[in-house]
Amino acid sequence: MEQRTKVLAAIVSLFLIWAGGSVVYHYVEGWRWLDSFYFGATTLTTVGYGDHYPITDTGKMFTIFFVFLGVSVALYTLTTIGEYYTERRVEARVIEHLTEKNKTHSLREHMRLTRHGGRHE
Question: Is the entire prediction scored with pTM above 0.85?
Fold first, then answer.
């Protein structure tokens, strides 16, 4: 899979997990939508302020699943984004190196031809 596609898939997956968790907390815990999204964000980023937490057994059980899955996908997403940008930087350096090498070769060829009056040796 192309790296850009992996990044997009990871970001979409993370957003879907965050949105799905928010829906569950809204209905299971009876939280407002903003509180549900807020809790999802603080949980997935592992900030966890502690101002919101599940009360119901279902909410607590879901949180265990949500944390393991969500944090794993969040870390995968960050890793994939990091790999994407690292790959771009490496490609840019390789292209820069090859361009410099080509310029050096062209300069040497020009000097050789100039020294020998354009004749091949």
Answer: no
